[in-house]
Design brief:
It is a single chain. The protein contains 19 helices and no strands. The chain is mostly helical. It has two domains: 204 residues, no CATH class; 152 residues, no CATH class. Helix 4 runs parallel beside helix 15. The C terminus is likely disordered. Keywords: Membrane, Transmembrane, Transmembrane helix. This is Putative membrane protein.
């Protein structure tokens, strides 16, 4: 490892910058999930790992690729800092360590409406059973259903990939800092655990199930207590173990035991491939051979594929115009590793300006959403921001806004939170926050409420 660091100074610089950022966040007790911090850390660590060049396919970036990658990050960070400055200038309050709802919110209504999202997810569960004969994890050969993009189980992907949506809706109701209704908290915690386990058994994919855990972790960070660097280190180790376990389940190590010393190298290289191939593909996409035609400009239409797919017209548009599907056929450098950072989609959808304007737009949007959590009257802004944070984490692999499942999530989040707002709950929100009574009278008012 040390030899690789000395041989590739790019990795050393990026790891050093990431370490400095982690130290500063820890010293000043900042939030690891702040959009600007999260984007910087993810990009530095991921590209630093890739530049170790454990495989020859991870070639050095061309200058144009450095401009795309660095320019995109610069514009995103500028968007974040401009919004930070505007929020502070307008007198916006800082984010609390534990968030709460600043208004009347009916948590009982929220709890029961969340089952509408669970029903949507459960349609996918039943669909998988109808095709595979059982939950995929419980079939005789799970790898049969986890490999390839054409098996019939994936017809229900829009449904069973929504487990994280269900986890999010029940998770916000699981913490005392936000929800005062005890029985709803306990029932919601059960539903969070049940949904995570059911999602894994239904389709034990790395991405889908890490979304479930990621959603819960981000909400835990804001409702129970901020994560430290030690907690993040433990989570990283868990992710690596989970990655290897699912790879073994999918048969990606063949028929050998992953503990076999003969395949120890492959066990280590497979996660590296999944990280590094995104940058292989990015560099290849912007520096393709002269005899390979460049992808057609989509005039911004394909940027809305997440919506058009749900309307059953997105796939037809891609086919008729010869655009890539979400499997990025034209820029895959290594068969089977088809992911690429979101900057490629920004380019093919909006041209060269999109590489810089789209990250700036998202920097503004994500940071504004982040600050609005401090004054939100319902959990919608928290759930929306948690979704955005997962986009940032996964932007090296997929383009969040072009995936239909996220649009479904946001629709359910808006529906449940809007309907449940402005309605008195069994136990009301803190009257001092709502503004119904003076703060000094809150103690007596709470006692009276609990004795009714």
């Amino acid at each position: 490892m040390m030899e690789a660091l000395f041989a590739h100074p790019e990795s050393s610089v990026m790891f050093t910058l990431a370490l400095v950022a982690l130290v500063l966040v820890s010293i000043f007790k900042e939030d690891f999930f702040r959009p600007s911090t999260l984007y910087f850390l993810v990009q530095m660590v991921m590209l630093g790992v890739s530049y170790l060049q454990f495989l020859p396919m991870m070639s050095d970036f061309n200058y144009s690729t450095w401009l795309v990658w660095g320019g995109g990050m610069f514009c995103f960070l500028v968007g974040c800092y401009v919004t930070d400055f505007a929020w502070k200038s307008a007198g916006g309050p800082p984010l609390q360590k534990k968030l709460e709802v600043h208004g009347e919110y009916n948590w009982v209504c929220h709890f029961f409406l969340s089952f509408s999202a669970f029903a949507y997810f459960f349609v996918g569960v039943l669909g998988v059973i109808s095709v595979a004969g059982n939950l995929v994890l419980l079939t005789d050969n799970p790898s049969q259903w986890l490999t390839g993009k054409d098996n019939d189980v994936l017809k229900y992907a829009d449904f069973f990939t929504s487990g994280a949506m269900v986890v999010g809706l029940f998770a916000v109701a699981s913490f005392k800092s936000m929800n005062p209704v005890r029985w709803v908290r306990y029932a919601s915690r059960f539903m969070v655990l049940f949904t995570i386990l059911l999602s894994f058994a239904t389709y034990p994919s790395r991405g889908i199930n890490m979304l479930c855990l990621g959603m819960f972790m981000i909400l835990f960070n804001y409702l129970r207590g901020r994560f430290s660097w030690r907690s993040l280190a433990v989570v990283t180790v868990f992710v690596c173990i989970f990655f290897v376990a699912v790879a073994s389940l999918k048969g990606q190590y063949g028929n050998s035991d992953v503990t076999d010393s003969k395949i120890a190298k492959e066990v280590a290289l497979l996660p590296y491939k999944y990280v590094a191939n995104n940058y292989w593909n990015l560099d290849y996409a912007f520096n393709r051979y002269s005899d390979i035609p460049e992808h057609d400009w989509t005039y911004g239409i394909d940027a809305f594929f997440g919506v058009t797919h749900l309307l059953h017209i997105g796939d037809g548009l891609q086919s008729n115009f010869g655009w890539d599907t979400p499997f990025n056929e034209s820029v895959v450098k290594y068969t089977g590793l088809n992911t690429i950072p979101y900057l490629w989609d920004a380019y093919k959808d909006f041209g060269l300006p999109g590489i810089f304007l789209l990250p700036f737009f998202f920097g503004v949007l994500f940071t504004y959403s982040y600050h609005k959590m401090a004054v939100a009257k319902n959990p919608f802004m928290l759930l929306l921001t948690a979704t955005f944070m997962m986009w940032i984490i996964l932007w090296n692999f997929t383009t969040g806004y072009k995936q239909s499942m996220y649009w479904v999530w946001m629709s359910f989040f808006f529906f449940v939170c809007t309907v449940s707002s402005g309605k008195r709950s069994i136990l009301p929100a803190d009257p001092a926050v709502v503004g119904e009574i003076p703060e000094q009278d809150c103690g007596d008012h709470k006692i009276a409420c609990e004795c009714k």
